[in-house]
């Protein structure tokens, strides 16, 4: 499995024009599958998801 390199910074995804009623800022994070799996397991062990 190919590991993703960690990104130095994360830019906002500007899909909705600034000043719009629905102007929500979102960030895109790139993580490896193993990091994602560990993150989900931590959420489950904390009782935050089933």
TrEMBL record:
Region: Disordered, residue numbers: 1-23
Source organism superkingdom: Eukaryota
Name under which the protein is recorded: 7019_t:CDS:1
Species this chain originates from: Funneliformis mosseae (Endomycorrhizal fungus)
Species lineage: Eukaryota, Fungi, Fungi incertae sedis, Mucoromycota, Glomeromycotina
């Amino acid at each position: 499995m190919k590991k993703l390199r960690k990104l130095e910074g994360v830019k906002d995804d500007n899909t909705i024009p600034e000043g719009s009623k629905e102007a929500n800022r979102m960030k895109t994070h790139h993580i490896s599958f193993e990091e994602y799996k560990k993150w989900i397991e931590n959420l489950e062990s904390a009782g935050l998801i089933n």
